[in-house]
Each structure stands twice: as structure tokens, then as C-alpha cells.
Amino acid sequence: MSQILPVEDRDLSKTERVYGVLRRRIRELILPPGAPLRKEEIALELGVSRAPVSDAITRLAEEGLVDVFPQHGSFVAAIRSADVREALFIRAALETEAMRQLALRADAKIIRELDDNIAAQTKALSQGNLEQFYDLDEALHAMIFGAIEKPRSLRLLEAARAPLDRVRRLALPEEGRPEQTLTEHRSLVDAIRSGDSEYAASAMRAHLSAVGRAIETKLPDIEAAHG
Amino acid sequence: MSQILPVEDRDLSKTERVYGVLRRRIRELILPPGAPLRKEEIALELGVSRAPVSDAITRLAEEGLVDVFPQHGSFVAAIRSADVREALFIRAALETEAMRQLALRADAKIIRELDDNIAAQTKALSQGNLEQFYDLDEALHAMIFGAIEKPRSLRLLEAARAPLDRVRRLALPEEGRPEQTLTEHRSLVDAIRSGDSEYAASAMRAHLSAVGRAIETKLPDIEAAHG
DNA sequence: ATCCTCATATTGACATGCTAGTATGGACGG
DNA sequence: CCGTCCATACTAGCATGTCAATATGAGGAT
């Protein structure tokens, strides 16, 4: 078969490729909550056998993005309030602790990269490019974990972000929320620069509390929409 | 084949059964760091095919307990300082945040269960039953996540504990460390009882800092032992 | 109309065969 | 004696076949 693949996917295993494709579709709601995942169909579409599709779905199930009912079917997980809140809990736990460590060891190089990211966020937002803004948002948070060399934690963070992304995409952002987010991001970098770990941790806590409040306003609608 | 299985494993999938067996052997160092995991052999021993063994090993690899070298073999992961420190980082992040929440909502029933656990720890330690003491230790930490209803976080915690367990088992406990641990556990429960979330978080931070110091004294030996 | 019964279709879990990539050790050249 | 090359053995990843469990819907009984 040996189909042509995008360069970035060249040396990925088929399982990882399938995982990436499905995960993106779920996060972006192309596959909405409740949608059935037919292995045979997915395998055919992506040009692989059922085995890597099963492996990918197992992994998504472990992350909570897919519900598997043995001998019945696999479905995109519903957006449950409890799951969303726990995802935010995990984010808060990991990211405040990360800030605590980063503030104590941030060097000039890292600070510069963070500042560059903030500049790019500012530009993206002024141009009204929300998709790029959110990508930079994710990159900023990832840079924090890169700086303190906690790759496994970064992976857990990414898993925790997925449920939150789905909520964000289900409702339009509140008026002025992206601007407020940018302000909070600036505060995060300033807090890292200060070298005060308590202050850095509280800046992240404040940021995620704001994220939590924004999400809580959306949850009732979502719950109502599909039980 | 239909072999007789322990009751507790009755309704588990074969993958989960294999996962549990391998995980326990790795944590308890029955399978030491570097040991090869021969799928065929394991499959034969446990009376299953290679498929569930492969799935179980994939899962262990995601937790960092196994290193997989494609087309070469799968081996019990070496105990790397960076991994151990990150595991403790994750524990600190999740458990301090959990304490923060639990202090705000702990009711009498939960407090009673925690007190019962402490009593059992005291008894186990006075009898010199260290294995039971460590089981109760793990149960205490698990109860915290049960109380705040964060099942996914509990799972992450359990994954984070495994590398730390391996370190603990590789070296005898320092003189008096178990007694000190019990004292810290008492402080944790007292902190929860106080209802002060900052105090509760700092009690957990203090406990895990002590765990960290105990582990750091052992790491050099371990590093030296097997690169 | 409502509740069973049961044939059917569909699925996940598992078994097993195949392919291609990698380390290893021995033969060979220096 | 030492380094290089290559045949070999072994592996993970993948493909595919099988099976048992479940939902579904038609048909019959109450």
C-alpha cells in the first residue's frame, strides 16, 4: 500500500498516527460527543488494519475522551461536568507546581522565549486570529514544562487540556475573555521573572481560577444539550 | 485453557490481569530494572496469547515502567533519577492540590475513616509489619482522592507512586524513617480536620519534601548500581 | 397497547500468522 | 590481536481470523 504521508508523520507508528487523527477530531468536535467510532470504517479510511485503530482507541479511552462498551461499541465520551472539573483540577495541580519550580530556576533564555510567545499572542489577538492565539496559549503552557524538564507531566497536561478544549469550542468565548486571558498570561511571565515561587504559583492559580469560572458559565448549557 | 483464577481477577479482562501481574512484579523488583520482558514466555506462563501481553506492556511503557525498543525488545525501565524526581513532582502537585480541596469539604465520615487508617498504621508499625504499613500508607493517600471524587487523579497518583516504590525497595529504610512517616501522616489528617486549605496543602508539601529527602539519599547508590 | 422471546447484526477482546527492523556473534581481512 | 562485515536469531508492530457478549427489532402472547 505505502501511501504518501505528511512529513511530520513519517516516523510515527500507525497507532500514533491514528491516535493523533482521532484525538484532533474529538478535540475539535468534528467527532461530537456520542459519535460512534467504527473501527473497521476508521481502519479503511486511514489505510491501516483494525489493530492500530484498537490500540489508539484504548489510549483515548484511558484519557477519558472515549467510552468503550465491550461487545457493543466505542463512542466519543460525553462532556461530563465532573470530568471537566477534574481536568481543571489536574491542570491546576500540575501547573501551579510547575510555576513554583520554574520561578526558582528561570534563566534569561527561557524568559526571552516566554516574552516572544507573549508578543506573538498579542499580535494574533490584535489580528483577530483566535485559532493561532489558542495555539500560542497551549505553547506557552507547554514551554513551562519544557523549561523545568518534566516531559511526563507535559503529557499529562495535554491529556487534561483536551476535555477543556471541547468545552471552549462548544460555546463562543465571552466578550473580552481572550483579552483577559492575554493579560493573565503576561502576569504569568512577570511572575516567573520575579523569581518568587509563591507569587508564581498564585499567578497560575489565579489564571486557572479565571479559566474555571469561564468554563462553569458554559457547563449548564452543555449538560442540557446532551444529558 | 480456562484455568482457575483468583476471585478478585474474575471479571477483569486478560489485558488488565497481565498488566496487574507485571506491574506488581516490577514494583516489587521481582522483575528488576533491565530485565527483558519476553512476550511469548509471559503469554505462555499466564495462559493467554501475545495480544493482551502486548497491550499490557504498552500501558506499562506509557507509565514509564517499561522501555520498548521497537524490533528489539521490551525491558523493565532503569531507575533514572530524572524519572524518580518527576514522579515525586507529580505526586506533590496532585496531592497538595487534593489536600487543598479536601480540607474545605471533609465531613465527619471521611475524618473517621482517616483516623481508622492512622490507627491501623500505628498498630502495623508497632508490630513491625512494614509491608502492611506501606499498604496502609498507600490506602491513606488513595482515600484522599476518593473523598474529593477525583478518580482519574487517583490513577495518575498510582502511576506516579510506582517509580518511588522501586527506589524504596532497593534500599533499607533509614533508621526511624517509618516512625517519622507515621508522624507526618498524623499531621496530614490533623490538617484536613482543621478545615484550613493552606495549612492542609503545606502539611502535604512538608510530608512529600521529607519523602523526597529520604529518596535523594538513596538515588546515588542506585545510579551507581546500574548506570 | 405492553411486555416477553428470540433471531440477527454488530462489536470488542483475543488468537495467531506475517513482515520488517535491530542486535549479536562469528568469519574474515588487516 | 583487533576491527569490519554479514548471516542469523529475535523482536515489535501490524494484519487478519475467530468468538462471545450485547443491543436491536420483529413477532407473538397477554
Map the helices and strands.
Two copies of one chain form a homodimer.
Chain A: H1 14-27, H2 39-46, H3 50-63, E1 66-69, E2 73-76, H4 81-105, H5 108-126, H6 130-147, H7 151-170, H8 177-194, H9 197-226
Antiparallel strand pairs in A: 1-2
The first copy, chain A, binds a DNA duplex (30 and 30 nucleotides) through residues 13-15, 38-40, 48-52, 54-55, 57, 68-74.
Structure description:
- The structure is a homodimer of 227-residue chains.
- The first copy, chain A, is mainly alpha-helical and 227 residues long.
- Chain A contains nine helices and two strands, in the order H-H-H-E-E-H-H-H-H-H-H.
- In chain A, strand 1 and strand 2 form a beta hairpin.
- The longest helix of chain A has 30 residues.
- Chain A is globular and about 55 Å long.
- Chain A starts with 13 loop residues before the first helix and ends with a helix.
- The relative contact order of chain A is 0.12.
- The N terminus of chain A is likely disordered.
- The structure holds a DNA duplex (30 and 30 nucleotides).
Largest interface: A-B, 25 and 25 residues
Given the C-alpha coordinates, what overall shape of chain A results?
globular
Strand content of chain A: under 5%
Helix content, binned percent of chain A: over 70%
Radius of gyration of chain A: 19 Å
Strand order of the largest sheet of chain A: 1-2
Task: Report low-confidence residues of chain A grouped into runs of 5 or more.
Answer: 1-10
Helix run count of chain A: 9
* Quaternary form: homodimer
Q: Overall pLDDT of chain A, averaged? A: 91
SSE string of chain A: HHHEEHHHHHH
Q: Between the first and last Cα atoms of chain A, what is the distance in angstroms?
A: 43 Å
